[in-house]
Amino acid sequence: MRKILAGTFLLSHLLTIGCSQASREVKTSTQTITAATQAQNNPLKLTLELKDNRYQNKPQSRLELTIANTGEQALPAKGWKIFFNSSRLRTADSTVIQVKHYNGDLYYLAPGSKFKEIAPGKSAKIEIAGRSFRNYTDFPLGLYLVLDNNPKKGMPVAFEIKPGTHFQQSEQALAAKIFKENQIIQNIPAEKLTKVFPTPVTYQEKGQPFILNEETIIVADKDFQREAESLAQTLQGIMGTKPAIQNQGNGKAIRLRKAQNIPSEGYELKVNPNGIEIIASAPAGAFYGIQSLKTLLPASAFAGRVNAVTVSGLEVKDAPRFGYRGFQMDMARNFQPKAEVLKVLDVMALYKMNVFHFHFSEDEGWRLEIPSLPELTTVGATRLHDPESKTGLLPSYGSGPDNTTAAGTGFYSRTDFIEILKYARDRHIRVIPEIESPGHARAAIKAMDARYERLIKEGKKAEAERYLLRDLNDKSTYRSVQGWNDNVIDVSLPSTYNFLETVVDDIRAMYKEADAPLTTIHFGGDEVPGGVWAKSPAVKALMSKDKSIKTVDDLWYYYFGKVNQLVKARNLYLSGWEEIGLKKVVQNGKVNWIPNETFANQNFHVNVWKNSPGSGAEDLAYRMANAGYKVILTGVTHLYLDLAYNTSYYEPGQYWGGYVDLEKPFYFIPYDYLRNLREDDNGNPINRATIKSKEPLTAKGRANIVGMEAPLWSETNRSPQDFEYKMLPKLLSVAERAWSKDPAWATEKDATKGQNMYNQAWSEFVNVVAKRELPRLDVYSGGFNYRIPTPGAVIQDGKVTANVQFPGYTIRYTTDGSEPTATSPEYTQPVTAQGTIKLKAFNPAGRSSSTVTLENK
């Protein structure tokens, strides 16, 4: 989503097959796998071995696929398919075996006319060619076997990937690159670090601390009672005793005091031996003052009960740069449990982020119960092998043939969502729900198809048609960027708007019950492919009736005009991806997208993600802001947290939009990000000439930049651990840049001076993250599975020299080819041993990074 899918694993054609001698001699009388024997587990094991990742000196690969029959019956010569997920595959045919696209990221292998039966215990080897691989998430996953005579039943298939040694050279080059980058990082003593995070507007240490203990009370203004209760619960978790909350009182206390002339989210924090004072004009400001107090506390305070905590004496005056500091959690493509959502809200609140973009609907899943339309979750929140998608959606992203995979099947009940809304409300976080439309809507479309069939069987034709999202007689053909041919809502149907109104009103009712603020609903609006609606009788009828719709392209403006009316009638404003505010024009014989003046000043809030170097859209966020749209900076190059940290084969995540590490959001300059577009999508330095003529942000446009948002899409997140690994510590860079003012280096005109200033600021930030915030996240809200950076390493003068991004972390190594552990030798000086050297970085808690391997010859 929000991405051009290209450049990863492509099974382009099959070359040869070589079955073992024994399997070639299998007689036709051998018992074969049948529908009656499908209960057996893993009847096959497939192994995909990468033989050449630069085949014929081109960006393509040569692989060997082994199909081993581990069951008790033969795999027949025909009559079966092996399905698998791979988001960028293409159809390939052979007389021996075929690779075909099914829908979305679902493909299958099927035997060709010359495929030979494989007897139990035997195997066949197939040579395959494809594009070059970059990381292990390129490979297929979620394999299962389906027999043609029982097409609704799937059996899981064991699968193994053998990448070989093809990445050794690039891994060694990456280790050297990381080593060079780490060299500018200084080890700064903890006592010299800023102790409030994100960086406040002003910060001054006074040297006289306050001792926080079980005798401390909270004295709070009546308007700050909810914030006082939250603070009391935090302190109870630290010291075991919940402090009393009073409206007034003397003695040593934490005081939440109301005052005027402070921004609504601003605060003042004062710590001295007599107590702690947090001054704010509104509850949000008091809350953020409390979060700053939390970051003042040592990480150990959150690990268990302590008798007393020393809080550094200081004075802080602070307020955010942006009123919109967002994080988007995609739980639609792969589901995350409610407990994980609450953890996300906890960490967002700690770092003063205030907008939670709740991406609950997609092609691959609808995750929010809508009581008026139960099929949205009974069908739309279930993934399993149902070719007709009547009882659930097709398997995606490795969810497999049945509905037992936690990442594939699941939803939030109405009660769950109300709890989430209350939890966010109490942490001053707005929740923006996203109803994906008109594209990315397959889950909703299939769910309403199932509702239609149920009611037709009951003889209720009019009710059945009330919420249909497609014209049943539409013959249009298209293919979305993610491979779907049936995922776009027909915007000409009155039933489409019945559906949207019902969903919106059910959602509004949940917000009302939760007493949570709802100011906008996000309606998606991106990546609708060409070909949609072209052969829809309903569209043709609408165009004959409404003469303002001259082409199917005009349906775009028709749709969002109606959606805008829908939300405005409910005192909401419209949010969406950038396409809701763009129109297609032909300029110099080329199709271009430019800001649509029709909606430019109607308070449309747009998440602008396109800014990749060379795309022509590098300045799109600024162009839209200059034109009058309210823009949330969501640039893929710096803020897409699902992208892999770096180019390592072992680093999980996608890379279609480049790579995003901890530093990318840190050096993002919101009002001048073109200045810091440094890398292309391959991680290589860009040609600055490609962005010289781009449109800068005007004074009017600057006023329309409402904030920043970092999305974390979920294609490769199949567990909370996967999700947290990509989220953290990157989210800390996002929080810093969204809250804090422009650092001095961002506006310095002298390049050399600016670079020196940047190096110092980056060192300070990395030290704060490593020494203060990550130890806190080891225990905060149950602890987070943040990523630990791999060591940098080079071979110099026959020795392996290493360093690590995070000061205070330990590097351990082995010289015998084994994996380093917490008891392996600690790296303290260059390693002189020859052969295979493996290194890992360890945090103070003993958790490690992935391995770096060097061959010292």
Mind sketching the topology for me?
Blueprint: E1 11-19, H1 21-24, E2 44-52, E3 60-69, E4 80-85, E5 97-103, E6 106-111, E7 123-131, E8 141-147, E9 155-156, E10 158-162, H2 168-182, E11 202-205, E12 210-213, E13 217-220, H3 225-239, E14 245-246, E15 253-258, E16 267-272, E17 275-280, H4 283-296, E18 308-311, E19 314-318, E20 324-330, H5 338-350, E21 355-359, H6 375-378, H7 414-425, E22 430-437, H8 442-457, H9 461-465, H10 494-514, E23 520-524, H11 537-545, H12 554-568, E24 573-577, E25 582-587, E26 590-595, E27 605-608, H13 620-627, E28 630-633, H14 636-639, H15 663-666, H16 699-703, E29 705-712, H17 720-727, H18 730-739, H19 744-747, H20 751-777, E30 792-796, E31 799-803, E32 810-814, E33 835-842, E34 852-856
Helix pairs in contact: 5-7, 7-10
Q: CATH top level of the largest domain?
A: Alpha Beta
Number of distinct beta strands = 34
List the uncertain runs. 1-32, 34-40
Distance between the termini: 45 Å
The average pLDDT value, as a whole number, equals 92
- Total number of helical segments? 20
Keywords: Glycosidase, Hydrolase, Signal
GO molecular function: beta-N-acetylhexosaminidase activity; polysaccharide binding
InterPro entries: Beta_hexosaminidase_sua/sub, CBM2/CBM3_carb-bd_dom_sf, CBM2_carb-bd_dom_sf, CHB/HEX_N_dom, CHB_C_dom, GH, Glyco_hydro_20_cat, Hex-like_dom2
Pfam families: CHB_HEX (PF03173), CHB_HEX_C (PF03174), Glyco_hydro_20 (PF00728), Glyco_hydro_20b (PF02838)
